[in-house]
Amino acid sequence: AERLEVKKRQQEMQRREMFLENQYDKTTELLNRLDVGLPKSDSCHIANRGPESTAWTRSRTYKQALREDENRRLEEMKQEQRRKAELMEFRQKQEEEARTRAHQNEQRRVNNAFLDRLQNKAQANSIYQRGYSGSLDCLSNGTWVS
Fold this sequence. Notes:
- With 146 residues, the chain is mainly α.
- The chain has three helices and two strands, in the order H-H-H-E-E.
- Strands 1-2 form a two-stranded antiparallel ribbon.
- A hairpin with a 5-residue loop joins strand 1 and strand 2.
- The longest helix is centred in the middle third of the chain and has 76 residues.
- It is rod-shaped, with a radius of gyration of 47 Å.
- InterPro entries: EPSTI1 (IPR026185).
- This is Epithelial-stromal interaction protein 1.
- Keywords: Coiled coil.
């Protein structure tokens, strides 16, 4: 509804502009003829110059300016969309890197805990094996005997 209202206003403005332009052309032509002394019978014929009239030129210029403005706004919207997409991609990349680092840290923690348990077992075995010359047997009370 707003667009139709704007369009109606624009058409009315164009009609008024054409009317004023025609009046201006007629007045200018009349003044020129009075100055030159030409007959006044052709004044109406010259007022309707066709598509090259100033109102037509202004109308085309105005429409072209509107198109350029619309194209500029569309280009700005596209650039804004590109910036948003790049920002979202950057954030997703950062989140993925953070998840990867967290996963690697968890793997290191688990591996280090495993290695610590292995090292503790190896140390415990080496304590009992110093000076060992036979087999170690575990008694029922939990003490080792050689």
